[in-house]
Write a structure and sequence with these properties.
CATH architecture of the largest domain: 2-Layer Sandwich
Number of domains: 2
Largest sheet: 8 strands, antiparallel, barrel
Strand content: over 45%
CATH topology of the largest domain: Glycoprotein, Type 4 Pilin
Shape: globular
Strand order of the largest sheet: 1-2-3-4-5-6-7-8
Number of helices: 0
Structural class: mainly beta
Helix content: under 10%
């Protein structure tokens, strides 16, 4: 099945098929990935991807899946166009930093007006007893910080707004 997804802010066309061994074959950007998943007793999922194991927490909403691991932090995978046609990502995705899951702000490393570089840590959030550092997706100026330390927020809440540098 061909679908279009927004993964970490970039659109990808993905083809997923079931393999004969109960797993999946995933083709993304011309690269084939063999994968399978299994549930763990603590609620995480263990993914076997090209011979490597990854244990992650998975939270799903209507159009998104959020994967969180201690190694990579949180990743949102959003369905842009389930039918696989020419779809568009949500407007302003690069101008806002949205919550990948509900939680609490643990630390804010920037203030309104600060200039930031791509990959710079902006905020640390906690959800399900796991801390996740959120990074700047691009070079920008911080236009607004919507939640301070100790504040709680919901799924997909706008945490920070970015403006062109």
């Amino acid at each position: 099945m061909r679908r279009r997804y927004l993964i970490d802010g970039q659109t990808h066309d993905v083809v997923v098929t079931r393999s004969i061994h109960g797993g999946f074959s995933i083709v993304r950007d011309g690269r084939r990935i063999d994968a399978r998943a299994e549930g763990l007793p603590d609620g995480r999922q263990r993914f076997h991807i090209d011979g490597q194991e990854h244990a992650v927490w998975v939270a799903c909403s209507e159009k998104s899946a959020f994967l969180h691991s201690n190694l990579s932090g949180a990743i949102e995978i959003e369905t842009v166009d389930a039918a696989g046609g020419a779809g568009q990502a949500r407007t302003g995705a690069s101008d806002t930093l949205v919550a990948p899951m509900p939680g609490t702000v643990i630390a804010v490393q920037v203030c309104e007006g600060d200039m930031v570089n791509a990959g710079q840590p902006l905020m640390v959030i906690e959800s399900m007893k796991l801390e996740t550092t959120l990074f700047a997706p691009r070079e920008a100026r911080i236009q607004a910080v919507h939640f301070g330390v100790g504040a709680t927020f919901g799924l997909k809440a706008i945490l920070l707004t970015l403006a062109d540098a």
